[in-house]
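Page 47, continued from p. 46.
Same chain as before, 291 aa.
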Amino acid sequence: MTSEPAPSAVPTRSALRNACPQRYLLALPPVAGLALVFLYPLALVVQQSFQPDTGGTSVQPYVDVFASDAFRSALWTTVWLAVAATAGCLVLGFVLALVIAFVPFPGARAVARFIDVFLSFPSFLITLALLFVYGSAGMANGLWTDVTGAAEGPFRFLTTPWGVLLAEITYFTPFVMRPLLAAFAQLDTAQLEAASSLGARAPRVVRRIILPEALPALAAGGSLVLVLCLNEFGIVLFTGAKGVTTLPTLVYGKAILESDYPGACVVAVVNVLISVGLYALYRVVSRRAGA
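Result:
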Protein backbone atom coordinates (compact mmCIF):
# COMPACT_ATOMS: atom_id res chain seq x y z
CA MET A 1 0.00 0.00 0.00
CA THR A 2 1.42 3.34 -1.04
CA SER A 3 0.61 6.52 0.82
CA GLU A 4 0.04 9.81 -0.97
CA PRO A 5 2.71 12.43 -0.35
CA ALA A 6 1.74 15.21 2.07
CA PRO A 7 1.05 18.56 0.47
CA SER A 8 4.01 20.89 0.62
CA ALA A 9 3.82 23.70 3.16
CA VAL A 10 5.97 25.96 0.97
CA PRO A 11 3.79 28.44 -0.95
CA THR A 12 4.00 28.32 -4.72
CA ARG A 13 5.03 31.23 -6.90
CA SER A 14 1.49 31.75 -8.13
CA ALA A 15 0.26 31.99 -4.53
CA LEU A 16 2.94 34.55 -3.75
CA ARG A 17 1.97 36.58 -6.82
CA ASN A 18 -1.67 36.57 -5.71
CA ALA A 19 -0.77 37.52 -2.14
CA CYS A 20 1.57 40.41 -3.05
CA PRO A 21 -1.12 42.76 -4.44
CA GLN A 22 -3.20 42.18 -1.31
CA ARG A 23 -0.24 43.08 0.88
CA TYR A 24 0.36 46.23 -1.11
CA LEU A 25 -3.30 47.21 -0.74
CA LEU A 26 -3.12 46.65 3.03
CA ALA A 27 0.01 48.80 3.22
CA LEU A 28 -1.53 51.75 1.36
CA PRO A 29 -3.58 53.24 4.27
CA PRO A 30 -0.69 53.43 6.80
CA VAL A 31 1.71 54.70 4.14
CA ALA A 32 -0.79 57.37 3.07
CA GLY A 33 -1.34 58.37 6.70
CA LEU A 34 2.42 58.58 7.28
CA ALA A 35 2.88 60.72 4.18
CA LEU A 36 0.07 63.08 5.23
CA VAL A 37 1.05 63.45 8.87
CA PHE A 38 4.86 63.38 8.67
CA LEU A 39 6.35 63.44 5.18
CA TYR A 40 4.25 66.32 3.83
CA PRO A 41 5.05 68.73 6.73
CA LEU A 42 8.70 67.69 6.51
CA ALA A 43 8.69 68.48 2.80
CA LEU A 44 7.22 71.91 3.59
CA VAL A 45 10.01 72.55 6.10
CA VAL A 46 12.65 71.62 3.53
CA GLN A 47 10.94 73.80 0.92
CA GLN A 48 10.78 76.77 3.29
CA SER A 49 14.49 76.42 4.07
CA PHE A 50 15.24 77.29 0.43
CA GLN A 51 12.93 80.31 0.31
CA PRO A 52 14.46 83.45 1.87
CA ASP A 53 12.33 86.38 2.97
CA THR A 54 13.38 88.30 -0.13
CA GLY A 55 11.54 85.77 -2.31
CA GLY A 56 12.52 83.17 -4.85
CA THR A 57 14.49 79.99 -4.29
CA SER A 58 18.04 80.20 -2.99
CA VAL A 59 20.58 78.54 -0.72
CA GLN A 60 21.22 81.88 0.98
CA PRO A 61 19.40 80.81 4.20
CA TYR A 62 21.85 77.91 4.53
CA VAL A 63 24.80 80.21 3.89
CA ASP A 64 23.60 82.71 6.50
CA VAL A 65 22.89 80.06 9.14
CA PHE A 66 26.14 78.14 8.63
CA ALA A 67 28.14 81.37 8.82
CA SER A 68 26.58 82.46 12.13
CA ASP A 69 28.39 81.89 15.40
CA ALA A 70 25.09 81.09 17.12
CA PHE A 71 24.54 78.04 14.91
CA ARG A 72 28.06 76.69 15.38
CA SER A 73 27.85 77.20 19.14
CA ALA A 74 24.42 75.50 19.30
CA LEU A 75 25.67 72.59 17.19
CA TRP A 76 28.68 72.04 19.45
CA THR A 77 26.57 72.36 22.61
CA THR A 78 24.02 69.89 21.25
CA VAL A 79 26.66 67.32 20.32
CA TRP A 80 28.69 67.40 23.51
CA LEU A 81 25.62 67.39 25.75
CA ALA A 82 24.15 64.44 23.85
CA VAL A 83 27.40 62.45 23.92
CA ALA A 84 28.09 63.19 27.59
CA ALA A 85 24.52 62.37 28.61
CA THR A 86 24.61 59.12 26.64
CA ALA A 87 27.88 58.07 28.28
CA GLY A 88 26.50 58.89 31.73
CA CYS A 89 23.28 57.00 31.04
CA LEU A 90 25.19 53.94 29.82
CA VAL A 91 27.41 53.77 32.90
CA LEU A 92 24.70 54.56 35.44
CA GLY A 93 22.07 52.43 33.71
CA PHE A 94 24.38 49.41 33.51
CA VAL A 95 25.26 49.63 37.21
CA LEU A 96 21.66 50.10 38.34
CA ALA A 97 20.42 47.30 36.07
CA LEU A 98 23.09 44.98 37.51
CA VAL A 99 21.95 45.78 41.05
CA ILE A 100 18.26 45.27 40.26
CA ALA A 101 18.78 42.06 38.28
CA PHE A 102 21.47 40.25 40.29
CA VAL A 103 21.56 41.72 43.80
CA PRO A 104 18.66 40.35 45.86
CA PHE A 105 16.95 43.02 47.93
CA PRO A 106 13.35 43.65 49.02
CA GLY A 107 11.33 45.56 46.46
CA ALA A 108 13.48 44.75 43.41
CA ARG A 109 10.42 43.79 41.36
CA ALA A 110 8.63 46.99 42.36
CA VAL A 111 11.66 49.05 41.32
CA ALA A 112 11.74 47.29 37.94
CA ARG A 113 8.05 48.08 37.42
CA PHE A 114 8.60 51.70 38.46
CA ILE A 115 11.14 52.02 35.65
CA ASP A 116 8.40 51.14 33.16
CA VAL A 117 6.21 53.88 34.67
CA PHE A 118 9.12 56.33 34.69
CA LEU A 119 9.45 55.99 30.91
CA SER A 120 6.01 57.58 30.50
CA PHE A 121 6.92 60.73 32.46
CA PRO A 122 7.41 63.94 30.43
CA SER A 123 10.92 65.33 30.53
CA PHE A 124 9.91 68.69 32.01
CA LEU A 125 8.43 66.91 35.05
CA ILE A 126 11.85 65.53 36.01
CA THR A 127 13.37 68.97 35.47
CA LEU A 128 10.79 70.55 37.75
CA ALA A 129 11.58 67.95 40.41
CA LEU A 130 15.27 68.86 40.22
CA LEU A 131 14.36 72.55 40.46
CA PHE A 132 12.40 71.88 43.64
CA VAL A 133 15.47 70.20 45.12
CA TYR A 134 18.45 72.17 43.73
CA GLY A 135 16.87 75.37 42.43
CA SER A 136 17.66 78.81 43.81
CA ALA A 137 14.58 78.53 46.04
CA GLY A 138 14.79 74.75 46.37
CA MET A 139 15.04 72.53 49.42
CA ALA A 140 18.83 72.19 49.35
CA ASN A 141 19.44 75.93 49.31
CA GLY A 142 16.68 76.48 51.88
CA LEU A 143 18.25 73.93 54.23
CA TRP A 144 21.68 75.56 53.75
CA THR A 145 20.39 79.03 54.61
CA ASP A 146 18.54 77.71 57.66
CA VAL A 147 21.63 75.96 59.01
CA THR A 148 24.32 78.52 58.18
CA GLY A 149 22.24 81.71 58.22
CA ALA A 150 23.59 82.73 54.81
CA ALA A 151 21.57 84.94 52.50
CA GLU A 152 21.51 82.35 49.71
CA GLY A 153 22.57 78.76 49.14
CA PRO A 154 25.54 77.53 47.10
CA PHE A 155 23.60 75.29 44.69
CA ARG A 156 23.45 77.20 41.41
CA PHE A 157 24.52 74.56 38.92
CA LEU A 158 21.06 73.88 37.46
CA THR A 159 21.28 77.07 35.39
CA THR A 160 24.57 75.90 33.83
CA PRO A 161 25.29 73.23 31.19
CA TRP A 162 26.06 70.81 34.05
CA GLY A 163 22.51 71.19 35.31
CA VAL A 164 21.16 70.32 31.87
CA LEU A 165 23.50 67.34 31.77
CA LEU A 166 22.32 66.13 35.18
CA ALA A 167 18.66 66.46 34.17
CA GLU A 168 19.20 64.54 30.93
CA ILE A 169 21.08 61.72 32.66
CA THR A 170 18.37 61.52 35.32
CA TYR A 171 15.57 61.36 32.78
CA PHE A 172 17.12 59.15 30.10
CA THR A 173 18.87 56.52 32.26
CA PRO A 174 15.72 54.30 32.42
CA PHE A 175 15.75 54.17 28.61
CA VAL A 176 19.03 52.26 28.95
CA MET A 177 17.95 50.19 31.93
CA ARG A 178 14.80 48.80 30.32
CA PRO A 179 16.52 46.86 27.47
CA LEU A 180 19.31 45.84 29.88
CA LEU A 181 16.83 44.31 32.33
CA ALA A 182 15.20 42.43 29.46
CA ALA A 183 18.61 41.11 28.36
CA PHE A 184 19.57 40.11 31.92
CA ALA A 185 16.26 38.23 32.29
CA GLN A 186 17.26 35.98 29.36
CA LEU A 187 20.77 35.32 30.69
CA ASP A 188 21.48 31.69 31.58
CA THR A 189 22.10 31.67 35.33
CA ALA A 190 23.95 28.36 35.01
CA GLN A 191 26.91 30.23 33.53
CA LEU A 192 27.01 32.55 36.52
CA GLU A 193 26.83 29.65 38.96
CA ALA A 194 29.57 27.77 37.13
CA ALA A 195 31.84 30.83 37.12
CA SER A 196 31.24 31.39 40.83
CA SER A 197 31.96 27.74 41.64
CA LEU A 198 35.27 28.02 39.76
CA GLY A 199 36.30 30.93 41.96
CA ALA A 200 35.64 33.85 39.60
CA ARG A 201 34.99 37.09 41.43
CA ALA A 202 32.14 39.45 40.70
CA PRO A 203 34.10 41.94 38.51
CA ARG A 204 35.41 39.12 36.31
CA VAL A 205 31.95 37.56 36.01
CA VAL A 206 30.55 40.91 34.92
CA ARG A 207 33.38 41.50 32.44
CA ARG A 208 33.52 38.01 30.91
CA ILE A 209 29.90 36.80 31.04
CA ILE A 210 27.38 39.57 31.69
CA LEU A 211 28.88 42.40 29.65
CA PRO A 212 29.14 40.48 26.34
CA GLU A 213 25.49 39.48 26.65
CA ALA A 214 24.49 43.04 27.44
CA LEU A 215 26.31 44.73 24.54
CA PRO A 216 23.37 44.59 22.07
CA ALA A 217 21.03 46.03 24.71
CA LEU A 218 23.59 48.72 25.58
CA ALA A 219 23.94 49.62 21.91
CA ALA A 220 20.17 49.84 21.44
CA GLY A 221 19.58 51.89 24.57
CA GLY A 222 22.59 54.13 23.97
CA SER A 223 21.62 54.91 20.39
CA LEU A 224 18.06 55.72 21.47
CA VAL A 225 19.29 58.03 24.24
CA LEU A 226 21.72 59.74 21.87
CA VAL A 227 19.00 60.56 19.35
CA LEU A 228 16.59 61.70 22.06
CA CYS A 229 19.23 63.96 23.64
CA LEU A 230 20.00 65.54 20.27
CA ASN A 231 16.34 66.53 19.95
CA GLU A 232 15.59 67.38 23.59
CA PHE A 233 13.83 70.70 24.09
CA GLY A 234 11.87 70.62 27.35
CA ILE A 235 14.82 69.99 29.68
CA VAL A 236 16.90 72.85 28.27
CA LEU A 237 13.92 75.21 28.37
CA PHE A 238 12.73 74.40 31.91
CA THR A 239 16.16 74.52 33.54
CA GLY A 240 16.51 78.11 32.36
CA ALA A 241 20.21 77.55 31.74
CA LYS A 242 21.77 80.78 30.57
CA GLY A 243 24.02 80.51 27.54
CA VAL A 244 22.93 76.92 26.80
CA THR A 245 21.48 76.94 23.30
CA THR A 246 20.94 73.68 21.47
CA LEU A 247 19.62 73.10 17.96
CA PRO A 248 15.98 72.60 19.08
CA THR A 249 16.05 75.76 21.21
CA LEU A 250 17.70 77.62 18.31
CA VAL A 251 14.80 76.58 16.08
CA TYR A 252 12.40 77.94 18.70
CA GLY A 253 14.35 81.19 19.03
CA LYS A 254 14.56 81.85 15.30
CA ALA A 255 10.93 80.98 14.62
CA ILE A 256 9.19 82.54 17.64
CA LEU A 257 11.52 85.27 18.87
CA GLU A 258 13.18 86.44 15.65
CA SER A 259 10.46 85.45 13.12
CA ASP A 260 13.23 84.06 10.91
CA TYR A 261 11.30 81.12 9.51
CA PRO A 262 13.76 80.19 6.71
CA GLY A 263 16.61 80.12 9.25
CA ALA A 264 14.54 78.05 11.66
CA CYS A 265 13.77 75.57 8.90
CA VAL A 266 17.46 75.33 8.01
CA VAL A 267 18.36 74.44 11.61
CA ALA A 268 15.48 71.95 11.73
CA VAL A 269 16.67 70.26 8.53
CA VAL A 270 20.18 69.96 9.94
CA ASN A 271 18.79 68.45 13.15
CA VAL A 272 16.74 65.93 11.20
CA LEU A 273 19.70 64.97 9.02
CA ILE A 274 21.89 64.36 12.09
CA SER A 275 19.23 62.16 13.71
CA VAL A 276 18.55 60.15 10.55
CA GLY A 277 22.28 59.80 9.89
CA LEU A 278 22.88 58.43 13.40
CA TYR A 279 20.02 55.97 12.99
CA ALA A 280 21.39 54.78 9.64
CA LEU A 281 24.85 54.40 11.17
CA TYR A 282 23.40 52.35 14.02
CA ARG A 283 21.60 50.05 11.56
CA VAL A 284 24.76 49.48 9.54
CA VAL A 285 26.91 48.80 12.60
CA SER A 286 24.34 46.48 14.16
CA ARG A 287 23.98 44.45 10.98
CA ARG A 288 27.72 44.04 10.58
CA ALA A 289 28.04 43.11 14.24
CA GLY A 290 25.28 40.53 13.86
CA ALA A 291 23.13 42.16 16.56
